[in-house]
């Protein structure tokens, strides 16, 4: 594809650290990360090598992660900017009002309208998630990514140019639809394009770019905050940059071999497979994909199929992975961090600087998972991350209750936040999307990923709609609440999540056949 270098250059200009991803993965081509003995243990191996073509394609597709990451990073800072509050929420700045005059630091930003604004993106994504699954199966992963990019650009125009709350909400609804379509299509795209032994690395580029979007958004908020009263419009408008990259990717990138073959384009699928594997002899992998497609095309209703006994274990782990991802408490740390630090008396600029620190830690800790997921496996990272996050959340809660609402407490909490974010970034941040995509049968893969996305966005909405109120009621106890959720999810992983590293994607769903709950009393079986 002659257009790939141009797209890569555009993405590099947008975010130069993503080049480190390519460097790290290219180095992996000459390493022995996955031994031949390990590959034989896990099952089939196919001819081919890690090509620069597949790396570039996955990086460009993963720019979809920046849509969600940038929005998460930018929104928390924007809703604390005086210019934005003057335009849409003047009562929060009015000392004489019940909200503006609230001296309880935990209740300073408790506004139901503000909660609806931040969470409107998520509820729109909930309603878009299932149609996104239909689109990826019938239109292909590529066209769905293109649609996501276009919708996000339109949403950006509405939010950046908003003159009233209705226009702002309409823009965020479009952003939510775009995020849902990108979340479903990009993770499927990278999982199917990647060779088995590097699927963890290439899939998680989505999370690397997502966290990069958070960092860039936080830095941009520091810069635009100086331009009162219109700086918030610049912050929101720059969200269109990653959307343009994804749109161009949807135009020029090839679709995945699995999607092409499933939709009847067998010769085109074979050519793409040869290109991304770097060899002409792809007969074994092509035959396995084709066999999976024959089985997939025999299924006329994947939504009914995914509820059948053989697909229930895969559905269970996909749903719980993305469900628990939101109940880790990450949104309390990333999304509302500026409000939390301001509430503790650090000042708005210091609060934004502190959130940049958490964003940088989040981004660079994600690189650990790029290597560790394919070396140590998904399961061990889930478990280690859960234990570390549990300790960190208890530390934050204890700091706030012992030190009180004062600036010193904010800086001690910042240490525990960074400890927490490191664990999240190399475990529960990237792995749920990888795990949910790779465990599904081809015939239910689009449906399964769209349901997993629906669950993730649904509970993002629930948390976005209730967090400020919960913070006002529970105060420091909110962190203890999420610590309890982390404990529960760590137990669930230990009991129900089998290891999937190194397996070809069409072989991965069968790992559940050997799991203890394949024949448990509820009747779940993989045979």
UniProtKB/TrEMBL annotation:
<keyword id="KW-1133">Transmembrane helix</keyword>
<dbReference type="InterPro" id="IPR003663">
    <property type="entry name" value="Sugar/inositol_transpt"/>
</dbReference>
<feature type="transmembrane region" description="Helical">
    <location>
        <begin position="230"/>
        <end position="253"/>
    </location>
</feature>
<feature type="transmembrane region" description="Helical">
    <location>
        <begin position="202"/>
        <end position="224"/>
    </location>
</feature>
<feature type="transmembrane region" description="Helical">
    <location>
        <begin position="116"/>
        <end position="134"/>
    </location>
</feature>
<dbReference type="InterPro" id="IPR005829">
    <property type="entry name" value="Sugar_transporter_CS"/>
</dbReference>
<feature type="domain" description="Major facilitator superfamily (MFS) profile">
    <location>
        <begin position="57"/>
        <end position="501"/>
    </location>
</feature>
<keyword id="KW-0472">Membrane</keyword>
<feature type="transmembrane region" description="Helical">
    <location>
        <begin position="476"/>
        <end position="497"/>
    </location>
</feature>
<comment type="similarity">
    <text>Belongs to the major facilitator superfamily. Sugar transporter (TC 2.A.1.1) family.</text>
</comment>
<feature type="transmembrane region" description="Helical">
    <location>
        <begin position="450"/>
        <end position="470"/>
    </location>
</feature>
<keyword id="KW-0812">Transmembrane</keyword>
<feature type="transmembrane region" description="Helical">
    <location>
        <begin position="380"/>
        <end position="402"/>
    </location>
</feature>
<keyword id="KW-0813">Transport</keyword>
<feature type="transmembrane region" description="Helical">
    <location>
        <begin position="315"/>
        <end position="338"/>
    </location>
</feature>
<feature type="transmembrane region" description="Helical">
    <location>
        <begin position="408"/>
        <end position="429"/>
    </location>
</feature>
<dbReference type="GO" id="GO:0015145">
    <property type="term" value="F:monosaccharide transmembrane transporter activity"/>
</dbReference>
<dbReference type="InterPro" id="IPR036259">
    <property type="entry name" value="MFS_trans_sf"/>
</dbReference>
<keyword id="KW-0769">Symport</keyword>
<dbReference type="InterPro" id="IPR020846">
    <property type="entry name" value="MFS_dom"/>
</dbReference>
<protein>
    <submittedName>
        <fullName>General substrate transporter</fullName>
    </submittedName>
</protein>
<feature type="transmembrane region" description="Helical">
    <location>
        <begin position="350"/>
        <end position="373"/>
    </location>
</feature>
<dbReference type="Pfam" id="PF00083">
    <property type="entry name" value="Sugar_tr"/>
</dbReference>
<dbReference type="GO" id="GO:0015293">
    <property type="term" value="F:symporter activity"/>
</dbReference>
<dbReference type="GO" id="GO:0016020">
    <property type="term" value="C:membrane"/>
</dbReference>
<keyword id="KW-0762">Sugar transport</keyword>
<feature type="transmembrane region" description="Helical">
    <location>
        <begin position="146"/>
        <end position="167"/>
    </location>
</feature>
<feature type="transmembrane region" description="Helical">
    <location>
        <begin position="6"/>
        <end position="29"/>
    </location>
</feature>
<dbReference type="InterPro" id="IPR045262">
    <property type="entry name" value="STP/PLT_plant"/>
</dbReference>
<feature type="transmembrane region" description="Helical">
    <location>
        <begin position="50"/>
        <end position="70"/>
    </location>
</feature>
<dbReference type="InterPro" id="IPR005828">
    <property type="entry name" value="MFS_sugar_transport-like"/>
</dbReference>
<feature type="transmembrane region" description="Helical">
    <location>
        <begin position="173"/>
        <end position="190"/>
    </location>
</feature>
<dbReference type="InterPro" id="IPR044778">
    <property type="entry name" value="MFS_STP/MST-like_plant"/>
</dbReference>
